[in-house]
Amino acid sequence: MNPAAKLLKSLNSKQRAYVNLDLKAPKNGEYMLVVFHLIPGEKLNILQAASEVAAESSTGTNFKVSTETAFSRELNALVYNVDLKRNLIWVAYPWRIFDRGGNVQNILTFVVGNVLGMKEISALKMLDVWFPTEMLEHYDGPSYTLDDMRKYLGVYGRPILGTIIKPKIGLTAAEYAEVCYDFWSGGGDFVKNDEPQANQDFCDYEKMVKFVKKAMDKAVKETGHKKVHSFNVSASDFDEMIRRCELIRKTGFEKGSYAYLIDGITAGWMAVQTLRRKYPNVFLHFHRAAHGAFTRPENPIGFSVLVLSKFAKLAGASGIHTGTAGVGKMKGSPDEDITAAKNILHLISKGHFFEQSWAQVPQNDEQVLKIAKEDYANHVILNDDSWRGMKKCCPIISGGLNPTKLKSFIDIMGEVDFITTMGAGVHAHPRGTYYGAKALIQACEAYNKGINIRAYAKSHKELAEAINFFENRKETKALSNERS
Ligand code: CAP
Ligand code: MG
């Protein structure tokens, strides 16, 4: 028997309606499942606090109300397991309580809304969430993916190598585009606006877009390689966000050469889903600025990087920043960041507590798979996995990285299917952005050839300078303008 069962007697009648430690088959497809770390507040025991969380995050409030009905009680979230030693609770949410039409914002308002502010808890952090196959088909999931970007760029077998233009803000539109050109001509694939870049008076948005196009055209012509720019379209309201998207689209960027970046937490989930639905053929880049308030390991109240990343995938992000597992400048760990990265990348992957299958056709549904196999008329279905499951969501690895750290991260990640963006790691190179890009490319070449970067640096000057600077903090001679 569940050791928490002895606490059942301590529940009042309202609380009892939100607990079922004998719930049969929580994975029967009816429920979205959640694990919280919970420390009770207000002298409650963990089961009392857990039932209050289940109530407030589904149908209830702090007292049993006379207006509830037999049907409304069917919609109660249910605490179905408790780990007294680790202060963990498992809650099953009948997912029919959520707004129809694939609305992610609504789910979050339920499960990490009021409950984070309740007096009945002193710690409440959502550590993992599990979506049943039956629920997945109601949510968009990613449309334009890293695979599409790879095809456009012709880049395989290595990470997409990117930068963020620095200083974070303060360059004019022309200066901004110059730095883009330097990075792309140095061999980089992908440039992003920084998360606060918008339409500041010293860097007019329209001019920035136009100059970036010129810089991209020049770099593509000179290098013979396609390039991508991720434009921050976060704005004061949806009309302005769409205006920026349309402006980019109408400046002549070909499909695949631009992405839309959204500050998903400060701009909000409606903005994320609006972009996913209006522009399914554009890479949707979810920047997670402000996520630390919820996800930092030392924060007792909030949710994990894994939970944020899974909801971003459900909402249709093509990629989301998942952290550098502590290799870079931000707080993080392999357990947090790599778990999140792998979980959104693969069709089936382990989380902290659940194994998530993003398949929409249950793997054992032979009948459907047989029909699909025989469905020659629509062979395209078999080539496009989206009918079978949610497409991959790309981990975007950024924050304090530089060429000397690339291998350390890849070794922890164990694979190269991600985008990495390095800001200072490129623009702080002693000889500037162009050489910083070259050093990044060389570090990746060294990795792919299985050569230690110090050995590789013996015949690659830009990498040697990067190692000197970033590892030994040895400033080399003043910036030289001539390009070797
Ligand atoms: C990185 C960055 C990114 C962070 C976000 C910055 O710049 O542009 O926004 O990576 O963190 O502004 O810090 P640097 P995360 O490369 O110069 O650090 O990816 O963890 O969400
Ligand atoms: Mg940034």
From TrEMBL:
It comes from the Archaea. Its cofactor is Mg(2+). Residues 18-135 form the Ribulose bisphosphate carboxylase large subunit ferrodoxin-like N-terminal domain. One of its GO terms (molecular function) is ribulose-bisphosphate carboxylase activity. Keywords: Magnesium, Metal-binding. Residues 148-362, 372-470 form the Ribulose bisphosphate carboxylase large subunit C-terminal domain. GO terms for biological process: carbon fixation. It comes from uncultured Candidatus Woesearchaeota archaeon. InterPro entries: RuBisCO, RuBisCo_large_chain_AS, RuBisCO_lsu_C, RuBisCO_lsu_C_sf, RuBisCO_lsu_fd_N, RuBisCO_lsu_N_sf. Transmembrane segments: none annotated. Coiled coil: none annotated. The keyword Metal-binding applies. This is RuBisCO long chain, Form II/III.
